[in-house]
Amino acid sequence: MDSKEVSTLVKNLEKSKGNEETVLEILTVLNRDLSPTEKLLRETKVGVVVNQFKKSGNPQIANLVKKMISQWRDAISKEKKQKAQSKNSAGTAGASHPAGGVAPGGTGAGSGSEAKKQDKFVSSKPRSAENDGVITSIYNHKIRDMVVRAMYNALAKESEHPPQSVLTTAVAVEKELNKLHNCEINEKAYKDKYRVVYSNVISRNNPDLKHKITAGDVTPDYLVSCDPKELAPEHLKKKLEEISKQNLFNAQGATLERSVTDRFTCGKCKEKKVSYYQLQTRSADEPLTTFCTCEVCGNRWKFS
User: Fold this and answer.
1) Which residues pair with residue 261 across a beta bridge?
2) Is residue 288 part of a domain?
3) How far is CA 184 from CA 147, 179, 189, 190, in A?
4) Which of 64, 81, 98 is the last residue in one of the domains?
5) How many domains does the chain fold into?
6) Strand bridging mode 289-294 / 300-303
7) Which one of 34, 64, 81 terminates a domain?
8) Is 127 a member of any domain?
9) For the TFIIS-type domain, which residue ranges apply (predicted)?
């Protein structure tokens, strides 16, 4: 959990002082996901805000806060000791291990894959914000929070990415939506764009898209700003291209007078009942292009 995410939760915690249920949910998330460091606590003031609930009338909240503060103090104390030890042993460590080397027992080339394995999130329940224990009330705004929750549920489904990673992506997508169409100013445009994006993400015709989004291959700004057709899988793009060509063929034929002749033979059914029209598709000194349609089987072709 980075400083921005912590700061957002801290703000929500301050705004929710009168709602014990929400306070408990936020504190639970902080207790579970926050890895305390001296820098993080100083930047976000999370310790100061959390400590305000130490004397809460709700025993569950008060006890949880006491536990969190105690754990954070121990973690910071341990961090300071490790820093002091590192400074004392810096000279020895530098002499023992060349720059850029890996100390015995440290992590080498295999550590990346090992880290990825640890990052995988496996749930016994169908993944959703509720089942993952994720709070999607980021903005205290009904519509925007609903979009964050919907995007989280869509991206988390069948994903092995950790909840915090999925939430970060869902929030980033919503931010791009709101940047494009400010929800406060133009709610209709915001909702319309959200529906387009959401339908693309959950489309059964494009199951790989959400995995590309959570993996970072498709960025939130591109997802929101691009033509939806650009997100289609290759097989669907080809199909759309064929449909487009067919529509062009039909449109061209509809505006021109067709003639039926027996001069042409259909290559498919071998019948000679063929309608055709001619069009100048290239430069004026080039021959006309003849567009043919078999009146028996519907086969179409063209030649110059």
Assistant:
1) 274
2) yes
3) 14, 11, 11, 9
4) 81
5) 3
6) antiparallel
7) 81
8) no
9) 262-302
Instruction: Quick: pLDDT tens for 159-200.
Output: 888 999 999 999 999 999 999 999 999 999 999 999 999 988
- Residues 196-213: b if buried by 16+ CB within 10 A, e if exposed: ebbebbbbeebeebbeeb
The range of the structural domain enclosing residue 67 comes to 3-81
pLDDT tens track for 56-108: 889 899 899 899 988 888 888 888 888 777 766 654 444 444 444 333 334 33
End-to-end alpha-carbon separation of the chain, Å? 65
Contact by Cβ (8 Å): 145, 139: yes
Q: What is the 3-state secondary structure (H, E, C) of 168-218?
A: HHHHHHHHHHHHHCCCCCCHHHHHHHHHHHHHHHHCCCCCCHHHHHHHCCC
Does residue 291 share a domain with residue 211? no
Q: 293 in a domain, yes or no?
A: yes
Count CB-CB contacts under 10 A for residue 233.
14
- Residue 97 DSSP symbol: S
Whether residues 10 and 44 share a domain: the answer is yes
- What is the DSSP code (8-state) at residue 134? -
Residue whose pair of structure tokens reads 């805000």 in the numeric block: 49
Q: What is the dihedral of CA 284, 287, 291, 296, to 10 degrees?
A: 160
Taking each helix axis as running N to C, give the angle between helix 163-180 and helix 3-15, from 0 to 180 degrees, rounded to the nearest 10: 80
